[in-house]
Design brief:
homodimer; mainly beta; 7-stranded antiparallel sheet; 1 helix; globular
Chain lengths: 119, 119
Amino acid sequence: MNKVNIEEKLSQIHDYWNPRIAGELNGQHVKLVKFKGEFVFHKHDNEDEMFYVLKGSFKMEYRDKTIALNENEFLIVPRGVEHRPVADDEVSVMLFEPASTLNTGDLENEYTKHELSSI
Amino acid sequence: MNKVNIEEKLSQIHDYWNPRIAGELNGQHVKLVKFKGEFVFHKHDNEDEMFYVLKGSFKMEYRDKTIALNENEFLIVPRGVEHRPVADDEVSVMLFEPASTLNTGDLENEYTKHELSSI
C-alpha cells in the first residue's frame, strides 16, 4: 500500500532489456524497463502486452508495419502477434502484462530473463 | 493494434469521476479519468486497483491514513481495502484494473457508472 515514484525507480535501472517488477495486481505485473537498440522478434501465445512510453521514444516493429511510439503514448500488442521493439536512443517504458509473461515470449536466447527483480 | 495518445484522449474528457476505457488486455481495462473534489469511501471485494497520476495530484484516503500522490506516481489499492480519492484541483489518472471493476465498488450511489464509454 505504498506509492511508487516512477522517476525514482527509473534512476535505479542502468541496463537495457531487463524489466523490473514495480507492482503486482490481479495476477498482472507492472514492470519498468529501459530499451536501447534492437530487440528480437517474438510473440506471447497467451498474453497481451501493454507498452507505455514514460520517457523517450521507440518503434514497435510488426512483420507488416511499424508503429512509432512517443512519450505518453501506449500500445497493446495482442497475444500471438510477432513484435520487436527498436529504440534508436534510450527509452523508459512501463509494461502491463500477466505475471506469467516471459520477456522473449516463445524464444529462449541471450535476452531471456526468467527471474525478474523487483524494484 | 493502434497506439493511444494519452494527451489526446484526456482532452476529450470534460467531466469528473467518469472513467473511460482506453485499452483492454488480459481481462483488464486501462481507464482514463479526471477527479476533482471528494469521492466516497468504498472498496472492491475482488479487484486490486491501480491509480497512476498522469497530471496533477490527489490524495488517497484510507480509514487510517492518507497517501499524497503526485505526477508520475502510482498506488495499488488492494482488494477489500476501503479508500476514497480526494482532489483539491483537477487531476488526470490512469486506472488499471479488471474489466469487472465497478467505480464505486460495494456501493451504489449517484457516482456509480455501470456502463463505461470507450475513448
